[in-house]
């Protein structure tokens, strides 16, 4: 068995999802490679030490440059805030490290392109953590579409709704709330939530050509945790956009952190000539499927409980009927990445694939500013 030594940067929520994936992986997936949690890196040493104890990292670093310079590290995982992704990834690529980077790839397409060039020049395996692709029901949707069961696609509809920033007393910036600080996050719901919807959509439905968007910042000023001052809010609290795909289908996307009652309601529905599918993160182990070719008296929406051994990934877990959850999507992502290494196959979404998502986000934010339809810059997909 080959060993891959992991250096993880960032011990927030995403650092936990990545660490948990490494801990679960070997117990459930028989792979050629095994990963070792070699080092955790965070500028806050106390936090990093506590994290190392909880998750079993062998060592602690407080400077990501030192981590990248270590010869005993093979894979760098970037779970740090968005404004650090590019600098870390480019340095890691130059040092010849494999990279798994949290989403969104970068602050904007320009940074993203530099990252793609760096990993491709270095020839290092790379992956961006758009984890929802690896929910078994979503992978099943991909398989059904690729088999042609839906026929020509007419409509794609996606939403990602949350409600955690409604209070005007919530500050912006700092450790837990950097997602509200435009200088650190790049954008609001567009990069944080719609990026997930866009990644899934490009994967399931192909290239997007044009978008027409509107955004809103409902609370214009918030106290900044780092300066203690009331500062302008630069992120989009809500975003809705129309899109046209290259395959001729029409789409609507919506995301907000102001949908009272919704915590992480990611949903999509796709309507094709023969069949439709729908999925809902709050009921993530089910795929809704309607097939017009069923005999008339039996025609109706089926709710497929995606827990059978022949459903994607499910043969690795428990027994039919018993479901898995959010955290398993990170285990699946890691398993696919390592399987790709073993078989010399590229596993998406690569940096190049994630740049396509970044370009859609850029076009969405541009359209919200100009009030016009905007073209999406093109990049060749790798998967
Ligand atoms: C934000 O609340 C967030 O944690 C995103 O950053 C994640 O990417 C998403 O999966 C859940 O919501």
Strand arrangement, largest sheet? 16-15-14-13-7-12-11-8-17
Oligomer: single chain
Number-wise, the strands total 17
Number of alpha- plus pi-helical segments: 10
User: What name does the CATH topology of the largest domain carry?
Assistant: Dihydrodipicolinate Reductase, domain 2
Task: Based on Cα principal axes, name the global outline.
Answer: globular
Q: Any ligands, ions or cofactors bound here, and which? A: alpha-L-sorbopyranose
- Whole-number count of domains: 2
For the residues shown, what is the average pLDDT? 97
Q: What is the CATH domain class of the largest domain? A: Alpha Beta
CATH superfamily grouping of the largest domain: Dihydrodipicolinate Reductase, domain 2
In which range does the helix fraction lie? 25-40%
Brief account:
The protein contains ten helices and 17 strands. With 383 residues, the protein is of the alpha/beta class. Bound molecules: alpha-L-sorbopyranose.
Describe the structure.
- This protein is an alpha/beta fold and 383 residues long.
- The protein folds into 2 domains: 2-132, NAD(P)-binding Rossmann-like Domain (Rossmann fold, 3-Layer(aba) Sandwich), CATH 3.40.50.720; 133-351 and 356-369, Dihydrodipicolinate Reductase, domain 2 (2-Layer Sandwich), CATH 3.30.360.10.
- It is built from 10 helices and 17 strands.
- The strands form 3 sheets. Strands 16-15-14-13-7-12-11-8-17 form a 9-stranded mixed beta sheet. Strands 3-2-1-4-5-6 form a 6-stranded parallel beta sheet, sandwiched between helices. A two-stranded antiparallel sheet has the order 9-10.
- Helix 4 runs parallel beside helix 5 (109-122), helix 6 (136-146) runs parallel beside helix 8 (189-205) and helix 8 packs across helix 10 (351-370).
- The two termini are 27 Å apart.
- The mean pLDDT is 97.
- Alpha-L-sorbopyranose (SOE) is lined by residues 162, 192, 196, 264.
């Amino acid at each position: 068995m080959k060993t891959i030594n992991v250096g993880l940067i960032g011990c927030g929520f995403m650092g936990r999802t990545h660490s948990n994936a490494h801990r679960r992986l070997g117990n459930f997936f028989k792979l050629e490679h095994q990963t070792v949690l070699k080092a955790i890196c965070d500028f806050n040493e106390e936090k990093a030490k506590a994290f190392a104890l909880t998750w079993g990292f062998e060592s602690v670093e407080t400077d990501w440059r030192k981590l990248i310079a270590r010869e005993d590290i093979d894979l760098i995982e970037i779970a740090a805030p968005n404004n650090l992704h590019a600098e870390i990834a480019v340095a890691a690529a130059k040092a010849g490290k494999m990279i798994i980077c949290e989403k969104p790839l970068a602050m904007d397409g320009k940074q993203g392109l530099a990252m793609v060039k760096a990993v491709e020049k270095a020839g290092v395996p790379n992956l961006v953590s758009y984890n929802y692709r690896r929910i078994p029901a979503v992978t099943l949707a991909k398989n059904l579409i690729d088999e042609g069961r839906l026929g020509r696609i007419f409509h794609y509809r996606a939403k990602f709704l949350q409600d955690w920033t409604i209070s005007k007393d919530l500050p912006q910036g700092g450790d837990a709330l950097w997602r509200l600080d435009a200088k650190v996050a790049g954008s609001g719901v567009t990069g944080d939530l719609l990026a997930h919807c866009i990644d899934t959509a490009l994967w399931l439905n192909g290239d997007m050509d044009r978008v027409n968007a509107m955004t809103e910042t409902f609370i214009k000023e918030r106290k900044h945790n780092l300066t203690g001052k009331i500062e302008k809010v630069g992120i989009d609290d809500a975003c809705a956009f129309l899109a046209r795909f290259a395959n001729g289908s029409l789409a609507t996307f919506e995301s907000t952190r102001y949908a009272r009652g919704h915590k992480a309601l990611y949903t999509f529905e796709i309507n094709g000539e023969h069949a439709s599918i729908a999925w809902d993160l709050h009921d993530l182990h089910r795929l809704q499927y309607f097939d017009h070719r069923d005999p008339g008296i039996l025609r109706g929406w089926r709710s497929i409980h995606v827990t059978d051994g022949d459903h994607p990934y499910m043969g690795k877990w428990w027994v039919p009927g018993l479901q898995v959850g959010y955290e398993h999507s990170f285990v699946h992502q890691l398993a696919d990445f390592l399987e790709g290494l073993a078989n010399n196959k590229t596993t998406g979404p690569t940096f190049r694939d994630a740049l396509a998502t970044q370009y859609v986000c850029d076009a969405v934010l541009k359209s919200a500013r100009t009030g016009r339809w905007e073209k999406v810059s093109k990049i060749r997909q790798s998967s």
